[in-house]
Amino acid sequence: REVDALRNAPLVEPFAGPALLSGRAAAVFFHEVFGHRAEGHRQKDITEGQTFTRKVGEQILPEFLTIVDDPTQARQGASVLLGNYPYDDEGVQAQRVTLVDKGVLKTFLMSRSPLVGFPSSNGHGRRQIGAVPVSRQGNLIVRSERTVSNAQLRQKLIEEIKRQGKPFGLLIDDIAGGFTFTGR
After folding, report:
1. pLDDT tens-digit profile of 40-88?
2. pTM score, two decimals?
3. What is the 3-state secondary structure (H, E, C) of 62-114?
4. Helix, strand, coil percentages, rounded to 5, for the chain
5. Is residue 159 within 8 Å of 105, Cβ to Cβ?
6. What are the tens digits of pLDDT across the range 151-160?
7. Cα–Cα distance between 144 and 11 in angstroms, integer?
8. Which terminus of the chain has fewer CB atoms gathered within 10 Å of its CB, N or C?
């Protein structure tokens, strides 16, 4: 039935309009779009976009959002967190790092490779087999001081669709994976 519906659905042009990301889709979005750009080694590589290099101390998100990376956290509720480790690959004890506090960028994830203004590791030096350690995410956790139920969030999406005069919006609950280019 679903295949028939998709086959018979009208073609739609590329869409720019209201979208709501939830669940894994929201997690992958933050991991790819924010998390990789908060890794310290990307701030000094001239081939990287250096999105946040000069933004420390500035508001980069709404003030109701705080983002931490906490490799010391083994569970979130009933879920086992895969980014948990006691020591990074450079022998530094893992640390909880507040990256964004109430919308303001505070720091970067750091390995032992220093940055101007960030002289030491915060326990995020990780490596792939055969590669040197670089700063990497552990468990990226986004917290909001302003929350609503799923039903209220869907209603807000509908209201935004109407406000923008769009025929529809997008509700994205799941995603197969992610990949981002952080370079210039």
Report:
1. 999 998 888 899 999 999 999 999 999 999 999 999 999 999 999 999 9
2. 0.86
3. CCCEEEEECCCCCEECCEECCCCCCECCCCCECCCEEEEECCEECCCECCCCC
4. 25, 20, 55
5. no
6. 999 999 999 9
7. 37
8. N
